[in-house]
Design a protein that fits this description.
Length: 333
Amino acid sequence: MDTHYPTKRPTDAEFLTGEAPEPFPPELTNVPWIDIHNHAHTLSWNEREQFALSGCQGMVMMAAAYYWTPYKPVAPEDVRYLWDDALNRLPQIRRSHVFDAKLGVGIHTGARVENYEELLDVLPDYCALDEVAAVGEIGITASQHVSAWPLEDQKEVMRRQMEVAADHGLPAVVHTPPDLENVDIPYRKRGTIPGYELDMSLQQDPVLEAEDVKRAATELDVELAEEAGLDDDKLVLSHADRGIAPYVLENTDCYLSFTVSYPWLLGVTPRDVAEVVHEYGPERILVETDSAGILRSDVFSFKRTIFELYRMGLDVDTIRQVVYENPRQVLGA
Ligand SMILES: [Zn+2]
């Protein structure tokens, strides 16, 4: 470096040796992105505006949000209300914000739903709507809130929903159980997990026990999709982490989606995304916020992830594939 500034005293530049670092490519600020899994209809107007301000072009808002239902065990009307409420509000969300918002509709297995057959009967009618872009979120859940849902029943409700997805050419967005072992949730003598409006003392005993619960649930999801005739490339496995990546990317053709908006709970950061892309390539990797009104989450984490992936060595085209082209492909958009 041989830069001299007309400053009265020498600046850092006087002491630098070697090449100047490459400047950041300005197009990094304009990479479009699609959030394939969130619950943004449960956020505030301001937060939905943040999606648009940080470059979000499209999102799929999962109307399957069992946490907000007032009664337990959950009745079919409770779930139906969540679907209808999201559907009812969608036009105004679209008029208010510039991204393309669509819905995911499905029976979440995080709390047992009584008489779920009633929902399976009407699910195809919802899936026929233009507003519905995915069946979700669904997925085998290891332990439920308030009322346990036996595994055999969960498998049935999963398989049937995936059949509906296959019939309508829709992807299924499937949560995988969090691996909370690796996360250091700060100890509190009083109250619940900080940042989570869910009474964990009401979690029921697990209905799925395995050494690696995330892996066992994910394998079941993949098996059930196959039984339902839903192609692997229509299956988005959410809440990815580095531990599940080898199974999914070496043994299936499914997509793997990393939740980046609440690392304090899932322990997942842009570094995990970068490592997996470095090892396996960007073809089947997605990023999602899963942001929801029930927990502390950060809408801007998506845009920050774009910047972080660049800093960690991914080029702009690779990043664009992960955050935009891949979700577009999944959604057939
Ligand atoms: Zn979710």
